[in-house]
Amino acid sequence: MKFPWANTLLLVLIAAELVSGFFGLVSSSPREWYFIVAHRISGYGIIVILVWKGANVLFSLRWKRSAAPRTASVVLMALLAVTLALGFAWSFVGPFGWAWFSGVSWHIYVGAALIPLLVWHALYHTRGFPIGFWADRRTFLRLAALAVAATAAWQAGELSAKAADLSGARRRFTGSHEAQSFSGNSFPLTSWLNDSPARVDPAAWRLTVGGAVERELSIAYDDLASEAETTATIDCTGGWYSTQVWRGVPVADLLARAGPTGAASSVTFTSVTGYYRRFSMAEASGYILASHVGDETLSHGHGFPLRLVAPDKRGFEWVKWIVDVHVNTTPKWLQPPLPTQ
Is the pLDDT at 36 greater than 70, yes or no? Predict the structure, then answer.
């Protein structure tokens, strides 16, 4: 390998892009802005190094070596180019979609497809490297210089977007674009796992509160005291966000009525479909179960009769069609980082 440092830096940047992208995907609190910033800077860093690396890959195709690494290099370069193009288009041009998915969703899917190829490529091209190579001062200096160049490119891109008044200049820190805020039920309809349950009959529906509590509850729809109101932003991983006024039942009130035991550690909210998300007791106590958005009763698509309103959480955490609130004696992290059911 003529230029091992270039491959090393590229692999480090791609790994940083994947890791920061994942944490950026599941984070919606402004306190976690650094994941998205790291994702953007890594993307610019890849662009910087690919300007040189691309020519090197094309030149290396002339060398006599097995077809597998040559094919892997070309495919990896192509997927990188597609992923980066989708990400930059979403960031600057504005919302777009194709075949039922948004541009940022395609950016995520193609990026995920890179993972197995990246692992193989990294193992193949770094086999036999001495430990000292990874701690080499010149490699560190090159990475530092690349980080500075990538940061400068990122800032230049942001300033250019503002100067040109592009749609991307107005996106949220997560990269999401605003969609029909303060519009009642008119904001976009999405579902993480394409859940599509039958309409809920409010006369037959009950909300149960159980688990590690002193008194289990079963509450009819007409008995809900939907008087708490909050303004909160739902930020969907599909690339849009919408700020709405929500009205419903404070989770803290339900927990107070049920009386959590001393062993209570987390709360799980479960949909009629079986979809669920779990939160710490402190987090859950700050949420509401919304029955209304704006001045309108929640529509079926938005989770009637109740959906969770979880500020600073991504949209897939805002469970719809809730039927059960369960207090657990186990911690909140005892669940998949992304929903699987």
Answer: yes
